Every structure is written in structure tokens, then in C-alpha cells.
Amino acid sequence: MTTSSLSWLPTPTSLEAGPEPAPPGDELTEEERAGLQAAAAAGERAAAWVRELARRQPVEAHGRVLELTADAIEQTCTREIIPGNDGDLAAELRYRLDGGVLLGATNLETVPELTGGERIALAAVAALALAMPGTALTWYERELPHLAQVMDKAVAAGRAATASGAGAAG
């Protein structure tokens, strides 16, 4: 009797447990850990800003789209950045972070009420969130802090656009 060549595959319960920890010898360096922490912190700040945009939407459906985008930003800047991962995001996360967020709910004739500066900042934040998990393929201890810094600047620009009313809503 021969054993199945599939016996080494993980069981469904281990698949649901999430990614396995790095094997011994592949521990994170202090710089890598700092990069991951910078990305997570920037993602949380950006998500908080997007939630502020969502709360002030007069059309509930547009607010919900922005809420889902905030959740996706948080997830891609934290749980999706896995050292040694292929950086490929689930289709749902990619969808939540594509340019469609600027259009809001697709079945309406309106778009979210945002200033021009907020739209630009939102597009930048979503693009940066999409980029972060892919850095795990390369030199993420250098790349993540840089992307996090740019994300923070995009959020600051969006907040400034909100405060000044820069650019007409539309």
C-alpha cells in the first residue's frame, strides 16, 4: 500500500487559521518590524480619515462604500503585509481600493460629496494601500516606511482640503 502524495497538504482547519509564523531563523529584524509597524500605523490613521469622510456623507450608500474602503485600507496595511508572502490581494480587497471608491455606490446618479482635494488624497491613499502588501516581495523594511510617510502626507492633504474647502465638491 502506498501513501497518498496529498498527505502533506494542510487540513481545512489549518487553512482558516491564517498564515503560519515565520520558520525559526526567519525572524524579523528590528528594521523589518519597524517597517511593518509604520505601515500599520499609517493605515490606521488613513482608515480613520476615510471613516470621517464616510460619516459626513448625506447619502448612506456612499458612506457605506467609504466605510468598506476604510476597512480595506486597514486590512491591507496590517494583516495583508506578510513577510515572504506573494503580495497578491484577494479580489474583494482590490475592488474596495480601486478608483471606483471615488464614484461611491454604483447604483446612484450621484457621487460622494468630497472636495477636489479630498478626492485626490483618497485616490492616493487607496493606491498606497494597494501597494503595501506587494512590498513583501522586495525590500519592505525600506519601502514600507516610505509608503507610510507618503500615505500620512496624503491624509494630511485630504484633511487640509476638508478644512479649507479646497476644490469644489463634485
What summary fits the major beta sheet?
none
| Quaternary | single chain
Low-confidence stretches: 1-25
The end-to-end distance, rounded to whole angstroms, is 70 Å
Mean pLDDT: 80
Helices and strands: which structural class?
mainly alpha
Computed Rg: 19 Å
Shape: globular
Please give the share of residues in helix: 55-70%
What features would you describe in this structure?
The structure is a single chain. The chain is mostly helical and 170 residues long. It is built from six helices and no strands. The N and C termini lie far apart (70 Å).
Task: Write the topology of this structure.
Layout: H1 12-16, H2 30-55, H3 60-77, H4 91-97, H5 116-131, H6 140-164
Helix pairs in contact: 2-3, 2-6, 3-4, 3-5, 5-6
How would you summarize this macromolecular structure in one to three sentences?
By secondary structure, this protein is mostly helical. It is built from 6 helices and no strands.
Main attributes?
single chain, 170 residues, mainly alpha, 6 helices, globular
